[in-house]
Design a protein that fits this description.
Distance between the termini: 114 Å
Number of strands: 13
Radius of gyration: 32 Å
Largest sheet: 10 strands, mixed
Shape: elongated
Length: 457
Amino acid sequence: MTRSNLIGGEMLNWSDLHPGDARPAAGGAAAGALLAATLQPSDNVLIAGPHAAELVRLVTSRAASVDLLVRSAPDAEELAEELPKGQIFCGSLDRFAADDTYDVVVALDGLERVVGPDTARFTWASALERLTGRLAPGGRFLLGAENAFGFERLVQPDITAALPRDEDWGRDVTDTAPAGLKPLQAALQTAGLAATQTYAAFPSLVEADVAFTQVEGFAAVVGARSFASRNEGPVLMDPYRLVLDSARAGLGLELAPAWYFVCGVETPEVLPEGAVPGGTGVLLEEHLMTALRCDDQAELRRVIPEYAAWGGAGAPDNVIVDGASYRLFGEAQEGDIVQHLVRFARRVLESGSRQPWPAAADPHTLTARLAAMAGITVPEREFTADEVVRPRGSAEQLQTVARLADELAHASARAILFEGTVSGIRRSRPYRVGHAVMNPARVIRRRLKRVLRKVRR
């Protein structure tokens, strides 16, 4: 078992792998895929900062030698079991005085947690310079960073912003990474590092499921799904729609929850490879929502029968439409066409998107209208009576209230106009003359009918 080397500044009663009120160590499938694409069997590697145990195991299985630098004594003892070759240095980066150089330096957790609370002044830039100095000529550097103003801040209020966590005590409050993508890239250039790849990591730096160099097209859909799965409770904005709308505006990379910066090596554009479907086309759900918002019922009546005839192996949010052809976005889903349309109707209502039938404000009615376009009758047993689906985020709820209030105002104005028109007709001379002429005739007609009924009896 590898022994820990205490270098000073170690935290004896603190764990970054199993924290109480702090975020866990960096990990995730995307982090593992990035390491696998970067490492070579002959590499001498330094892992700086807290990384999940599975990442440490992956590095040790692919590299010739691995050294760890962690600030937590309990973590050092735990990770010693995972390190058959190399050394563990326990303490702060500013006390790390060894002269070794490395082919690869890995800091996917960022640089905020490479020092302890007794290091009062050691800036993020200083930490980057110290690690850069450990690189051998032609070495590779992998850096992670959280986005201080990303999607997370837009969908969830940070109610703990005024209360420092335990890991923040004793540190300079300005000792954080530069805020924003461009300042981070500039800091890397200042340190003599040129990022060959910059990834947007979703849903977070702690558990990066996927990472892309471009947040657009199907990659944006994958990122939106990952981010929405992490924010399933009450939110300020619908996280799924927020990511897609930002990607359309070209801001997906800048607003990503976290970034990976790769220096000195070319890596795949998508991590893990195959996480984003290839080919052309658009998500069927987006195509149908656009038709709903534009009141393009002709397009709905064309596409929905084609989708139903295709077989319905997936809900519209899992189907790609490319002209008149359809294919799955991911794995096949169980259920028939009605169940898939039910899911689509719920997602439409949860997104707060406009649809052309004001009366279709529940999943049953909206699904029945859509299914009828394909000649399908929706059974009532599929639904709960008077079921109400509210928009997902607070912003979408307010937008829906404003839209419904506007539609109600227009309907009221039309009713007032109609009532005024009818009242004007009733006051007109032709109407009064016609009423005076026709009313006696109606009375005589009704009396004749009564007399005839009596005669027939």
